[in-house]
Amino acid sequence: MSSGRPKDGDMRMVVAPDKGSSLALPPKPPSASGSTALVEYTPPVVVEEDEDLEIKLRRILENVPVRVSNTSGSSAGSGSGDFHQYRQMRRKEQDRLARMDVDYQRRKELAEFTLRREERLKAAEERTAKKRLKRQKKKQRKREKKSKVGASGEDNKKEESSDEEDSEDDEEAAK
């Protein structure tokens, strides 16, 4: 077994490398600052998304209250005020959970309401479009009927054409 010390016969001569050539480290890239550091410091590149995240994180940290729980000391046993502290912390936590539930229910109801409202508006728009089409068809049939009756007299045609122009102008104004 070896004691870690070289014996007399184990000595070897080793040639030390020249100071000009370094075998242990890779060559350093040329730097303008003349620094002898192995790793050069480069400032971090700031991306807008990172800034937005930092701003959001800062806003959260400023607005969210810091919770300091009233923890017991390191001595064994409970003091006379520990039960009251426990009840207070429990009540605050129950209130917080209740507020979260109320907020969740309110958001859920609002989302359901907007969904139902959009469906009702869509259905109402479809009914309106259907009735509009029906009115236009009825108006068109009335015009055709008038044009058949008015074919016998030239005067009726002139009046009818001016009425059609007026009604067409009214339709364009309504759109």
From TrEMBL:
It comes from the Eukaryota. Residues 129-148 have a biased composition (Basic residues). GO terms for molecular function: double-stranded RNA binding; protein kinase binding; protein kinase inhibitor activity. Residues 161-175 have a biased composition (Acidic residues). Residues 1-37, 67-175 are annotated as: Disordered. Residues 19-37 have a biased composition (Low complexity). GO terms for cellular component: nucleolus. Residues 1-11, 91-128 have a biased composition (Basic and acidic residues). InterPro entries: Prkrip1. This is Uncharacterized protein LOC107426968. It comes from Ziziphus jujuba. The gene is LOC107426968.
